[in-house]
Amino acid sequence: MRFGFSTNAFREYQLEDAIESIADAGYDGVELLLDEPHLYPPDATDEERERVTEVLERHGIAISNANAFMLTAIEGFHHPSYIEPDEEYRQRRIDYTLAALETAADLGHDYISIEPGGPIPDGKSREWALDTFVDSLEQVIPKAEELGVDLLVEPEPELLIETGEEFLELLERVDSPRVKCNFDAGHFYSVGEDPAELVEPLWEHTEHYHLEDIPADRTHEHTQLGDGAMDIDGFLAELEERGYDGFVTVELYPYEETAIETAQEAMTYLEEHGWA
């Protein structure tokens, strides 16, 4: 398997500098934040996309994932979501996703990670939220199929889709092979699941993995590798045993003030444990 590091920890840096720092730390890949201040699809120009490709090639590093989950350019990480009660506001997330699919295709990348429906709005039922999420997905699936870019739904605590079972239930309602899973090990651990045990039931649906540590109380707090309580080695061993040769991206966005050092320390952990 190969390891990447997400530029969402490098929001205090220009994207070019983030890519260089991640490459210098020894990673094979970089997760591109498709949001401000890095590469925001609705505003990104052809020249900007071409520049990203040139920088990646110059540093010999690949794209591990295109992160179209975070969306601070409009309001915050989770808003607008695919399940906003206000249709016009919801449409802004849909339009953003369509632009993100185009950006990924222009960069020659095969998938983007997206949010799992957002927080269920006050006064709305889970059934309404699921129906609305499926309706929103059906508005972006044709573009994903046209471009050959997969939509990786990323289950997250306190959002519509949190668990492995809920993700599989979603797939039963969506008729497209382009909808798959962005498997975030820490997210599943935070909702009481064992990431290593969840690899098998989600294996055929998973195209990319996120990795971070999580505190012992399972609080959803992205923590430096080795500083939490998650069995990282057990999880990675399960991927290795299955012959996974894709990317595992370390996602430590809370560490903005120490982004370079954090990326280096995470790589040191992976090296010392024999994974990188």
Description:
The protein has 276 residues and is an alpha/beta fold. It is built from nine helices and eight strands. The chain has an eight-stranded parallel β-barrel, surrounded by four helices. Helix 1 runs parallel beside helix 2 (46-59) and helix 3 (87-106) runs parallel beside helix 4. The mean pLDDT is 97.
Helices, strands, pairings?
Elements: E1 2-6, H1 15-24, E2 29-33, H2 46-59, E3 62-67, H3 87-106, E4 111-114, H4 126-147, E5 150-153, H5 164-171, E6 179-184, H6 185-190, H7 195-202, E7 206-211, H8 232-241, E8 247-250, H9 259-272
Parallel strand pairs: 1-2, 1-8, 2-3, 3-4, 4-5, 5-6, 6-7, 7-8
Please write the string of helix (H) and strand (E) elements.
Answer: EHEHEHEHEHEHHEHEH
Distance between the ends: 9 Å
What quaternary form is this?
Answer: single chain
Shape, per Cα inertia axes: globular
Helix content: 40-55%
Strand order of the biggest β-sheet: 1-2-3-4-5-6-7-8
Structural class by sheet pairing and helices: alpha/beta
Question: How many strands, which pairing sense, and closed or not: the largest β-sheet?
Answer: 8 strands, parallel, barrel
Q: Which range does the strand content fall in?
A: 5-15%
Low-confidence stretches: none
In short:
The chain is 41% helix and 14% strand. The chain contains nine helices and eight strands.
Task: Note the main attributes of this structure.
276 residues; alpha/beta; eight-stranded parallel barrel; 9 helices; 8 strands; globular
